[in-house]
Give the backbone structure.
Amino acid sequence: MPLRLAILLIALFAVVSLLSLAASYAVTQSSFEQTIRADLRQDLAGFRAAPNARAVALLIEAESREADPQRLILSYISPSGRIYGNGAISRDDEGFHIVSFDRNRAEFAGEYLSLTDTLYGGVITIARSRAEILALRKVFVNILLISLLPTVLIALSGGLILARRSKRHVEVVGAALDRMTSGDLAARVTPGKRWSDDLVQIGDKLNQMAGAQEAQMRAVRGVSSDIAHDLRTPLQRVALYLEDLRGQLPAQGDAAALADRMQGEVDGMTRVFQSLLQLAQVEAGSPRARFMPVDLGDVCRAVADVFDADAAERNQRISLSLPETPAMLKGDRALLGQMVSNLVENALRHTPHGSEITLKLVQNGHQIALTVADNGPGIPADERDKVLERLYRLDRSRNTPGHGLGLSLVAAVAELHEAKLELADNDPGLRVTVRFGG
Amino acid sequence: MKLLIVEDDTTTGNYIARGLREEGHAVDLMRTGKEGLIAATSNSYDVLVLDRMLPEIDGLTMLKTLRGAGNTTPVLLLTALGDVEDRIEGLHAGADDYLAKPFAFGELSARVTALARRPQALEAETVLRAGNLEMNLLSRSVTRGGVQIDLLPREFALLEHLLRRKGRVQTRTMLLESVWDIGFDPGTNVVETHISRLRAKVDKPFDRELIETVRGAGYRIAT
């Protein structure tokens, strides 16, 4: 767009310059022409002053001798048919004419303006050179070449450079917008030193907008952790009352069973709050400063061990495939453990009895790929992004235990560790891959 | 033991205090950081239990002030749920252990007791004993009454942890943290499963039970 504008402006400028040059040329040329005509008329008037044809012939002869044929040609054809003067130009018709001579005629060459008239039965023709007008044309062409062409060239290249620069700047703004559209509200436009004021203003406005949106998102997220915080004290009291109550009940019996179930529910609530708060914390991104070297293989072994008994109860199997050397990366061990744990727990919970869950680690240089795959029902392609949102649950999962926060935490922990999270079809089943260091 | 609890929520504070008194401890209960600081500096306690959030002077500031004054009494910090940041900040400020709310009383009691008698980390023991059970840490073998017992690595680690803290209750979360190195509760019955496997190998074939269950709290090796 800016390039097209630049070219248009240059074209306009060139046309206007050409027109004004042409106009001034036309005016100057016509004034030269007028002068020549006036001179010719005056010359003719001089010859008319002679009393007869004989006198005209004598005057022509005399003046031709003085005149430079390059500038002035005089000729008179007497009534008897004799030709006088320094050049035999004659016209049948009277009036002004432009006459050209070949360059190879020595005495006179180039263009002349001639005036022909009849005088005492003869024909008189006076011609004056138009060389000055031709010279004038040359001058104007030179002006065109020397001034206009370089101006256009400079304007064109300058315009191109400006256009390309502004295109680059617009692309910077565009890239920031693209990132914002794809959900990265932390994206900002960073104006360069040479940016034009209007673009800087647009960038500032965009940044303000993204900032406001980010703050809103934070507020929405904050609500869930605020609620969890505020419910902390009452939940603590309930847990203690319940424990006290359970202690006063006999070890067996309906009341005791009820109290046990209530304690189980309180534990469940605690876990939901825990997940919400942890999610808020991980998304805030602060723990990165405390990253330590972690052996992801070790984490996987611990998690597989922790879930082994649960899996066995449902006739499910967790198969572990780890590299022989430690898979070291810098991270938060507790969060990585929670991530692997959530993935395995998800796989166990959403697959039927007898399914197999694979926990695999592949190391390639600095890159580590963690894969948790199952052969259960999988997740439809169009819902794979949504399951990463907090509290989102597939319709068919409504009746299985869980709170829809597991995968959100996985996504948040992956992002904190600058890892890529991929959900793919395991054909059949779901395959979740987390790529570190890529 | 003489304990100081600083907790602003009256209900929670009273419950903890009552429970700990029932276990035979002398308990002082304070409601604000200021009161707590005065009590902690004018008396000598075995363990301090501090809530992270307190009116007037908050738990962390109180802890830093105490440590700055050269007070080395073990401190158990009660933090918000899952607040990793708080926990780490607390440990940096000089807390010896933390407990996330809501907690079970058994967990609190077990941790308080554990703090009062921290295990000597550099104890260069090579053989751990309980009754007629012997664990050799060098050969990584376990015998009871001269009978060889084969344990899987995780079972060995679990038994070692309990043996090193003989007589002291170890809660589920404490075991998950030190045996599995997992800082969160995955909500599985992994601890129970391993304890029952361990019992099947260590206790079942013999007349006396070494691994005891403490209701609502955890497990311990009988002394």
